[in-house]
Amino acid sequence: MVSPLKVFMGMLRTMALMLSSFLGFVVRPIRRISTANTNILYHDGRVLATMETGPPMRVYLPSLSTVGWFTGSSAEGEPPDETMGPSIGGPGIEGFHNEMTTAHTGELLLFHSTFIFPFVHYSIISSGCAGKHGSYLNQPVPGFTSGKMMHDFGVSRKHTIMLDVPLSMDPTNITHNKPAIEYDPHGRTRFGVFPRYCPPQIQWYETDPCCIFHTVNSWDESVPWGTRVHMLVCRMNSAAPIYHMGDLDAPAEANHENPECRLYYYQFPADKSSTITEQWALSAIPFEFPHVPRHIEMTAARFVYGCSMSEGNFATRQKSSVKIDCLVKIDVRHLLQVAEAHPPTQITGCVDQRSINEILATNDANDPIQVFALPYGWYAQECSFVPRKDGISEDDGWLVTYVFDESQLDANGNAPATSRSELWIIDARNMRDIVARVLLPQRVPYGMHGDWFSEEQILNQREVAEFRSLD
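Below the sequence we write its predicted structure tokens.
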């Protein structure tokens, strides 16, 4: 994951450039600062790399050649298109900040979180800039009162869910020797739910303070009096990791006596009342970097996949790299049925209270939580699910992930140039069998997100007129 400190310092440098431009000291245009190195996705014939500090960057597969910035209707380096539509961003400061994008559907949904009022904007880009609703760009999301550290949001078929955690962001604080990020342990976490095409109808729900970097899945349920919205997230009770990713010491108020990062379930009411209907953990095991098979996102998917560890926690206060030695498959449907029969305590409750080592010890093929444990000294990264063609069950397919054997590290813990990672293909049905191991030509460093692209997607990429170069 990208260091928030680097993000904030980049924003600060950009603000200084803008101010200098207005004062007449700088006449050249401001360059985009995004490194586009956090996530990668496929939309409308384009493979797009994203990060919070700028618009998506189009890359071409399988060569990984850089095409150019994608601004909503086209990318730099593409052939001219007479039907080119509108773009995210625009002239001036406000337009620049609307390019600061996180994108997580023939539709591509994005939010733009900044430290300038109204703080959060929202865009929808349809395939070919067409479709029933067309493109819906740079719409303000009401209800935010300050800049926030936001990394993700929730999307169901009919609704969008914004996250407002008590983690404020203001890079200008650095000029006053104050932290750019501040966590308020006495603040509230809020969820803003609105119909996909209508942010002004947002309904806010408050709960205890927590941090959420990644949502897992969101889906709608029709009932006689309206539509319930369900949401799964990776919920932390500690803000320490956000400081540690920037190589900063976390203040005391950001730590928690018993840090945890769990798969949490939220249910928002159909009658639009102001109280969250259900909120508790499905499992007590550490759970982060989640994955839902792409073809069943935004539905009541039975299984979700993610990363875990046999020791430690994603919410730990220690400044050490996350070591993922377990991949997990959780039967959400089963655990929700258990919760319906035996409701957990709101907020603090947990459906399955076993540790990951207790689950491993059962070795039960029918356990609602299945764990693939890597050999000692081997560590994985975020996984992706690849469905079997004509599969007969939701989990009929494979998990793919990069793994690394740390016995290759030298005495100082550094990876020599000769070290190599592997791509492992794991049977998702039993979470035990390694179907194939592909030795890679080099090491793939830990961190960031990943995705799987099919041969059909690669063969159907949009045409490129010119690739970027270092010249």
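The longest helix spans residues 4-23.
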